[in-house]
């Protein structure tokens, strides 16, 4: 019997759900039956200050269908309370958030003394995600392996085909800001935002322009969706 996996988009955009689907489907095995859920009462784009209320909204709407699934993946790159709400409700069933999964994936690829950083969307998410990493790892470990978060300013409006050039320019500025803020000692970068999916080539190119082809190729990018899918599989193996 296939694994029934519910993949949750807490905002109300079906276009974002399709973007999530394109990022997650390639990392699911043939034994997984995914269902993608879009919050019918969610905002078009979730702002950091609205996350707590959004978690309550999603949780209430999901209550009646939780028994239909074997595992849950929250496709929102944020410290989202829905993860803990679901964990408390569904018992031993795996509940994974892509933010937490990507941080774990970054730790797995780091060598001693290396650090990772997060490239995200809006500036409001910088402090939100930095606090989330510290809460997740504890301050001593975060201080030793986590550089910080840099925003790119990329928004939903930059997803349109005619805006790809603007998105690329914003990503170049974001990479320059990251290098200027944290230096060249970053070994891995978490792509920290659903709408940033597919923009890894922009980041790689910007790094190569700043550091040269060899150094640019050595940067490891953490795919938020791949990390989430892998974390779900690992959690199921441990059951």
TrEMBL record:
InterPro entries: Asp/Glu/hydantoin_racemase (IPR015942), Hydantoin_racemase-like (IPR052186), Iso_Racemase_Enz_sf (IPR053714)
Entry GO MF terms: amino-acid racemase activity
PANTHER family per record: PROTEIN DCG1
Family membership: Belongs to the HyuE racemase family.
Name of this protein: Asp/Glu/hydantoin racemase
Organism: Cladophialophora immunda
């Amino acid at each position: 019997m296939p694994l029934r996996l519910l993949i949750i988009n807490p905002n109300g955009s079906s276009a974002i759900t399709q973007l999530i689907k394109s990022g997650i489907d390639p990392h699911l095995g043939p034994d997984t039956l995914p269902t993608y859920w879009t919050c019918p009462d969610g905002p078009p784009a979730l702002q950091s200050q609205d996350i707590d209320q959004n978690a309550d909204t999603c949780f209430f709407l999901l209550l009646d269908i939780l028994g239909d699934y074997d595992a849950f993946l929250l496709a929102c790159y944020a410290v989202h309370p829905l993860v803990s709400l679901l964990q408390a409700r569904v018992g031993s069933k795996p509940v994974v958030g892509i933010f937490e999964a990507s941080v774990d994936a970054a730790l797995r690829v780091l060598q001693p003394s290396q650090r990772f950083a997060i490239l995200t969307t809006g500036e409001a998410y910088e402090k939100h995600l930095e606090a989330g990493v510290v809460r997740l790892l504890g301050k001593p470990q975060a201080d030793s392996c986590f550089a910080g978060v840099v925003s790119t300013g990329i928004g939903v409006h930059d997803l349109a085909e005619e805006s790809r050039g603007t998105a690329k320019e914003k990503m170049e500025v974001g990479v320059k800001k990251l290098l200027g803020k944290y230096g060249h000692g970053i070994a891995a970068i978490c792509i920290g935002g659903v709408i940033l999916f597919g923009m890894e080539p922009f980041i790689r190119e910007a790094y190569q322009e700043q550091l040269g082809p060899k150094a640019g190729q050595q940067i490891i990018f953490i795919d938020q969706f791949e990390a989430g899918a892998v974390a779900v599989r690992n959690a199921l193996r441990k059951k």
